[in-house]
Amino acid sequence: FFFFFFSDEMNERNFELASNLITKGYIDQASQARKQRENLLSNLLAQRQLPEEGWDDLSIRSIINDLSSMDSNNFIKNCGVGDREARVYSNIVKERHFGLAHGMGRSGDLLGEQPKAAGSSLIVKLTHYLVMDVLKISGLTTAKDCILLPTATGMSISLTLLALKARRPNANLVLFPRMDQKACLKSIFGAGLIPVVVENLMEGDQVRTDLDGLRKHVEQLGADNILAVLSTTSCFAPRVPDKIVEIAQICKEFGIGHVVNNAYGLQSTKCCSLIVEASRLGTVNAFVQSTDKNLLVPVGGAIVATCSKDGKSFIREISEIYPGRASITPLLDVFITLLSMGSKGYRELLRERKELFEYLTTKLSKFAEENGERLLKTPQNPLSMALSLEKWKDEKDITFLGSMLFSRFVSGTRVVNCKAKKKINNVTFEGYEAHINDYPTPYLTASCTIGISKEDIDVFIVRLQNVFDEQNKKHSKLEVKL
């Protein structure tokens, strides 16, 4: 880190020379401004946590450029004769990545420092501390360690399961409380393991974990054959978070692993508190969350974290199972974004999301009442809600509803007719997307996740009403003809 040790002295000399060219008062003021930006990095290196106030864009760019200059491919007199020298043909590509072309990790360890890339290695270390701070702000107060993987949630779950598999090579089964989302199931297949789907139960309108069914599967299949349970927190209503505290206790009782898919649950204090409690009372080896869904960055990264006592060693095992180096881009996106947010900005986003969830609930409840439908009662789901489509009896109309919303630039909703059949690899699901075989009513989902605005909700309600009105006119004309 010689760059930082000597930069102050070198800058003072440069400013002294510059004062011989223009008015010294102007140079002194510029020098003070420069030191303010240098102090931002000094504080970050010393405190290793999110700054309270977000940084301005120029400060972030300046510091990343300084860090990039510490990588060998950006040395002025560097002579590279190896097979990987971070050569980049396009200047556009080089600028897009701030000249950080060495990636992260070494061939045997994703967290390994790179001799050729001190700047990149430092960014990896600093981002780790920033993410740990985010976990604790989100409610994961007992988080022990984490790793930011340059893969999205599904592949990150696969890598986590592979690390568990290395501990218990003779166990090949993963119990999977049913979650109708392809990536979840494929993450098990992707790790070369065999999923065993545990069907859910209905509690009122809610679709919930069948704990008795889970226990029976463990007893029938044998704990020695079961690698882990893959449970879920964040999900689309009317499914609600799995009973992960009870699942963790079952896993601890039988000595099997437990991985939690917390895809977009980091923004929910309820999901985070469930993970903390499950880790305290039972077994949770790791929980996985998406960076794009929780931290407002492009798709491509995931945070694997743990609250377990031996969690640090398991995170290291995940790091060491990753083959080769990896792209630093998803991690750099998080680094930039968190510096821009600061802890104050992140807390504000969490607060806004929680308030807007109540607003969406109120608006959609009123809409349901005015249109002869109902908002399904799913109090255990803190992120998503579902509107019944009981008056939409025709399957074609239900399917058409989704396309009509999409054509009106409404994205993110799911229209579920509860009758679809889906085969993924060798596993067949009845009533696919409903998370249960025979949910009694079709429905439409809407989620309230981080970054949503009041305007988004208002526009959604207006466009949904337009679609309902159009459908009612269509049926009125048919009745007149008849």
Structure description:
The protein is α/β, with parallel strands linked by helices. The chain has 15 helices and 14 strands. It has helices spanning 2-18, 24-47, 57-68, 91-96, 118-137, 153-167, 182-190, 211-221, 244-254, 269-281, 291-295, 311-321, 329-370, 395-407, 454-481, and strands spanning 145-149, 173-177, 194-198, 201-203, 206-208, 226-232, 257-261, 286-290, 302-306, 384-388, 414-416, 421-424, 427-430, 443-447. The strands form four sheets. A seven-stranded mixed sheet has the order 1-9-8-7-6-2-3, sandwiched between helices. The chain has a three-stranded antiparallel sheet with strand order 10-14-11, covered by helices on one side. The protein has a two-stranded antiparallel ribbon with strand order 4-5. α5 packs parallel to α13 (329-370) and α6 (153-167) packs parallel to α7. The longest helix has 42 residues, at 329-370. The radius of gyration is 26 Å and the shape is globular. Mean pLDDT is 93; it is low at 1-7.
